[in-house]
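Issue 218. Parser rejects a valid record. Input:
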Amino acid sequence: MKNKQLKILLSAPRGFCAGVERAIEIVEKSIEKFGAPVYVRHEIVHNKFVVDNLKSKGAIFVEELEEIEDKSRPVIFSAHGVPKKIPEDAKNYNMTYVDATCPLVSKVHREAENLNKAGYHLILIGHENHPEVVGTMGQLPSGSIDLIQNEDEAKKYNLKNEKKIAFVTQTTLSVDDTKDMIMILREKFPNIKEPLKEDICYATTNRQMAVKNIAKKCDMFFVIGSRNSSNSVRLVEVAKKSGCRNSQLIHSESKIPYDSIENAKIIGISSGASAPEILVDNFINELKNRFTVSMEEVEIIKEDVVFKIPKKLN
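Output the parser choked on:
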């Protein structure tokens, strides 16, 4: 059965970004420093394998601070960022907390705050209920920031007041979809203030470019990542739009579609920014058990970004 030849184009860069590596390191260092358990508010990053691994080391995951029974234990805020109210609540509980918010998300938070102070009404381009969006909107007083999720909402959007207007974006969006929404807003509001530097993070942009680069050559494309990982889901969309209609997400409960792969000559593989490389390796090994595999890694850019962990953990 193993005689079927299969070529794999491996997209690079893929997998962990600097913000995810930093967040995971913060949980591990906190367990080393404070002992177990340490609590983590919301999944530290959107990946079941990572979360389960940290649970085994002594992390307990909760959605809200109220759920933490022993308030003398430290709590870590996830890489996605939290509303302003959360650190205030932690202080009121006299809790030790460590903020693992990705520095690129924190940058958007500061940007939003500064624009708000300068008298701008804000639009946030992003996905409703995603923790990053909840965190960014939670930096500002209610009513001073509105969410736009798609082109349709951008077209219908009307400013309810006489204020100056500005926008920020979620860091893990599709670069192309966001461009289209921004164009609509620019046409509606010629004076709209834009971020000085694009809010979509370098890792999201690089992973999308890498997928675009190879998708059109592939019969099938697989993105290793979680269903609730925004950047992973966007990579599947990018692969489809870039010429590989048969693209799908491989998550913790996925069955590998061997029958479809039987009919493919070339498949592409990438992984979301919160998916560890071991999951990519496992997937490739499963394919090697069934097919005669040849591999080519196609790298478009080298990433060397590193974010330092908070001083209190050193």
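Fixed in the parser; the record now loads. The chain has three domains: 5-16+202-299, 18-101, 104-200.
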